[in-house]
Fold each of these.
Amino acid sequence: MTDTAPLATHANEAAERTAAPSDADVHAHVHEVVEASKTSFLWAMRLLEKPRREAMYAIYCFCREVDDVADDPAPREQKFAELKRWRQEIEQLFAGAPKSLTARGLAQPVAAYGMAKEDFLAVIDGMEMDASESMHGPAMAELEQYCDRVASAVGRLSVRAFGDHGARARDVATALGQALQLTNILRDIAEDAERDRLYLPAELLDAHGIDSRDAKTVLAHPALPKVCADLAEIARKRFHEAETALMDCDRHAMRPAIVMKEVYRRYLDRLIASGWRNPHERVNLPKAQKLWIALRHGLI
């Protein structure tokens, strides 16, 4: 769902283990990954005080790197081996002995904000779903599980970094994670088809008479806009659930979540207005509008 990069080489891994990198090395690595990504989330992360911002950078760096593994054109077995190494890295992180630069960057945030190991492992589970190349019109239940792993689990880590540990903040993470991921799926249909991925759920494809599960065939089907419109309605409901849960949260702490909600809700509105007449045309927002959203909602 995001930009790709080559898998880390074993030589680089060995260098990380033997060179005993300094805090400056860790900081530089995390910032390099985040800045290179040009992620929309950067606008929201910059709203946080420095320690919490650094925690979010480290979380994003982890997500970026495991996502790159899933998206890499390497053989499936190699991707699974790399994701297994990441599982071991998370186990070492929670045992107090992180090895890689990224895991070292996570050590202080995990300790300071009480992040859960199962959420990091859930993200890896989601990347294994992508690496397995099984995402070809999944059942709705499987799609929801995928969204929970690759997006809501990240949200559960993030709200800890934001500073709201309450049950309703977790509800925001669950609902908003689903909303953001479904919006990304609807934005990236053509890009995903090029990677032979089709995230649109089987129930909606069947309901509109699309029998094929070949991504490019579905992309060209005249009923595609109806499928997308139905999935967009589910995304809208998740945005509404997130907004309702946010009413019971520390809104100052949850500013980054509010900003991302506003940005992605506008993406969804533009997609709905486009009617998916040209799924190859990726919807975006001008930088000035993202900045306005960040300023408006970041000063709560």
Amino acid sequence: MVLLAALSFVVAFLVALLVIRRVRGHAGRYGYAKPQRFHVGDVPRLGGLAIFLGLFFGLIAAVVAFYADNTGFLHISGMVMAGWMCTLLPALAGGVVEDLTQRLPVVYRLVLTSLSAALALLLMDVGVVRLGLPFLDTALGMVPWLGLVLAFVAITGLPHAFNIIDGYNGLAGMVALAVCLALTYVALQVGDRQLAGVLVCLTGATAGFLVWNYPRGLIFAGDGGAYVWGVCLAVASLLLVHRNEQVSPWFPMLLLIYPVWETLFSIYRKLMRGTSPSVADALHFHQLIYRRIVHGVFHDDESRRILMRNNRTSPYLWAFTLLTVVPALMFWRNTWVLMLFCALFVCSYVAAYMMIIRFKVPNWLRR
């Protein structure tokens, strides 16, 4: 597994370097007037290609090992790899086209992530078979198609949730890395080596991309990267729970509660203001932290000042994410404890958001 992670890391690292040096021209298309822009200069947004190719070559190595020794330690056959790649490609295509042109409407990208979700249901036997609560599990048993609908919504929505939190250097990438590692740990605990192998490849690819993304911000994940993370982690979470009864369905829910709740809260916030949820704004949690908490950067060069503030924003959210990852790893079998921590996160998020909006941030959080 270490070799797979290393191969994925090297491929993603080199592809990202190639993009930085050779494919910078498209970055000039990204308008300076967009509200979610918090950087200066033209930075390529094709990190998703590096992440995808790192994952791709890591899986190829796993398939070669599967057929070479006839034992298949990771059980990643050509059919398994084909299922993952076919599932990822529609979402990746939509993300990359948007990263290159900035002209692909949200509805088309939603259709493409929906196609990825449909392929996952068709090719990978993905579904929600239990929710950890007896009365809901009984309902799922009586209405099996409801579990397919829930899985479809999860796989369709999580890529867009990662796209929402992909606002600052290292933010979405480190969240994805932490979730990958946590899922890998539990997959190994329950003996699901195939799923662990896929996640190890994604972990290596994400780390290779992050070398260039944080702290220098030389390349962004873009929509393509967010969609690769979202689809992979959604499918992996569903498969882990589906295949292993000892894993609580609320384990991946707690791991992913930050991007999920950020998305739901954003939809609610925009609807209350009479705005379409598809309209971008600069009022997400990480953007408020950037503008109202992170300061104290005094440098004559504007681009460097913005870069330093950008880099100081992500660690706040990394710490916030650890408050979910650590208890998730500690109590991955215990549904009620995991549900409690999900509720605590939601309450903490809303309280922190309201505190920042009202300029009541404690001095010890400012720097």
Amino acid sequence: MFIKKKADNAVVGVVTAILLIGVIVAVVSLVQTIYIPKIMEQREAEHMDKVAEQFTYLTSVIDGQAADRTKNMPVATSITLGSKELPYMLSIKAFGTLEILDSARLINVTLTNGTMKTFPVGVITYSSMNGYFLDQSYFYEAGAMIVSQSEGNLMMIRPSFFVDYDSPDLLNISFNVVNISSVGQKTIASGFGTYPIQTEFYSISSNVTFTNVSDITFTTPLSNAWSVFINQSLRAADPNLDSILTDTGQAVVLDFSSLSKVNIILKIIDIRAQIGPGWVEQPD
């Protein structure tokens, strides 16, 4: 009987240890599958908000440089590409890519005599590679800041675009376009760290008034954001003007064939940019 009691105690100890291990595993699994994703999703959402703030600041810096027009004074703006994983439990990092895209967009102005003028526009882009939160992209494009998700895109900061309509005789559209061009080979950075993007005013490459314009086309994959903004600007000048706008999904087209006379005042402001520390001078 004495030996049997020892055996029973040993079995109870083993069972207790197994139960404790099972409880620990269950708790760890619960935390890993439910709470860790929620924590990481919140961290990545906060990171997206931070990038939005940084891009807002970048936009204000470039707008200030375009207005001040002081050459040879680059200004650095830091962009945080991603976020680290948790120091405990199992999680993954969030990554991002910051890039300068030269001549990625096109503005075409067509006159009534058939002459077409084309202006390439460079942009600055940030794209996230999140593990838990919805991926987002931010763009500085032609003076506007735009956020894009899988469901669509929205303009967060408007460009310098004005509509003046003296119905039915004359429509004046003034558009100050910021063109981003890269300097050297520093055009892209990927990872999860913080990288500076440096920008400086370079020149006013074009400042011209086009008279007797038949149409203007802005080619961009973010056409929804532009069409909503331009449509609002047109309707503010006259509710009937929204009929001249067409969104093709890859371009916004303003057809002026129904109007008597249209003038486009187009100013192209060239801003040079590079990613990373240390400004690389390029010959003019």
Amino acid sequence: MKLTIDDIKGVFLIINKIMHKNKEYLIELDSVMGDGDLGLTMCKGFDLAVEGIQNYEGKDIGRGLLQAAMSMSNAAGTMGILLSSAIMSSAKEVKEKKELNDWDIVEMGYAAVKGIEKRGKAKVGDKTILDSLVPGVKTLDKAVTEGKRLPEAFSDAVEAAQEGVEKTKEMVAQFGRAHYYGEKSRGNQDPGATVALLIFQAFRDYLN
């Protein structure tokens, strides 16, 4: 299965639609121990990312993603910064490519993880976006290795990301405002991990 810049633009449109649909849900999750603005930040961030990539008229997917990342970096909030770093790292992975195969998508996923790790200094188990993003990417890799087509591979990735989100409920936050709550942060779902799950769902929905 080959994806072009038009497909990537389509994915961004669906991510944006899902973020707007879940705006109040993300605000509710983030209000427990955070600023309560995550839903607003994600809507603004992906509004800007969509505008950036839609304005790109070339075929180079890496360059298109770079424009999305640079546009999104203007969104306020830690998550906007982390996701723009993730997109920028993915952009560098597919620089000058006009078509993406399944393995390109997997490598973009790993690049996104590295971008977030480098910028945020967190690791799996710290109750962050990585706790759903990493298992989702690893499962995507496993599914593609097993020969599954990309739509099915992303369905598997969504399940893995969902499990990752559930596991964050038993973790103690190590970053952001939530880490000030210490043990009291246990029992609550991490909003950032939920964002990664929504992104995997957007890819699955587009491909299916």
